Predict the 3D structure of the following.
Amino acid sequence: MLELLEPSPDRRPPACPLFDRCGGCDWLHLEEGAQRAAKEEIVLSALEHLGQVERAEVTLVPSVASPKAFAYRRRAVLHPTKDALGFYERRSHACLPVDRCPALVEALRELPGRLAEALGTVKHDLEAVHLLAAGDRVSVGLLLQGAVKPRHREVTEKAVRTLGLVGAVLTPKEGSPTLVGRPALRLPAPLRPDVPLFLRPDAFSQANEQANDALVGAAVEALGASEDDDVLEVYSGNGNFTFAIAARARSVLGVESSAVSVELARRSVDEAKLSNVRLVLGDAKRVVDGFIREGRVFDLLFVDPPRTGAPGIASWAHSLHVRRVVYVACDPAALARDASELRRAGFWPDTLQLIDMFPQTHHVEAVMSFARRADG
């Protein structure tokens, strides 16, 4: 945009002074209701134009708003700059120094500036810093450009003590991570207060805790598992969806390529003594293709892939003889591509629901279900 001639009724003054430069909250100038309407249009348009899935084919379930419009992010990724830590600038990999961020939960809000000071010159050895909070407990992950050296551990231990962190993870360019303190954070699993969920700053977790509960609820509802169903969950992570699905299904088999995430999920399984959850560490395509060669069958397929989507999902769904697929998507284009493949394989689009996990940004989570046609 070159010049604003007449503001929309949905336009508002941005609440952050860094809005015009920071690459994080790119929709701060738009009212939340208008944000959600725009996100619905983005997803539906992607399905229509990229996936050839007409709007009339999908039952659009009302979108879910984030309980918090600001101060909702429990995790963030910072990058080192000359004397500070910060976020990438808009449409750039240049780093914008940030001392505090209103998008972060209270426990993290002032941490960028305080942590930059505590790390000192060690910042220059880092590729990125991951922040993670659960309530008032905070841990950090430091991704190094090379090996972990004694001074890295010494500075990190001091930062943990000074800032009141529960722990940190030092991740070298190659090799195993070094743990300082107890960086794994424990909280109840979504929809399963009887099962602990463990998070670590060097493993993926959803950024919006309150909206994540809604996301898991929407996904479980769309899957519709019963006590007679065996579920294959691909990209199962630390069990964010696994344990809620297991409460309804006969069994859940989770496949995940991150060793840290599988370790955290197995810790949950062991502590809660879950007998109907099995976890497999390995590449999604190799593991699922192995199941197909073995002649394995499942009733339901659940996937929560990374931004690149789930290439091959149509073949998986067809060969495993599942009757229903539920797909949690963070990228509309990838969802559209995979939805098109599923449709050609005989899985008809059923429901679509959006969860506004990332207010003030264009990002959105979508939960889409597909049902096998009677002649599929």
Notes: The longest strand covers residues 126-134. The chain has two domains: 75-185, 208-372. The chain has ten helices and 17 strands.
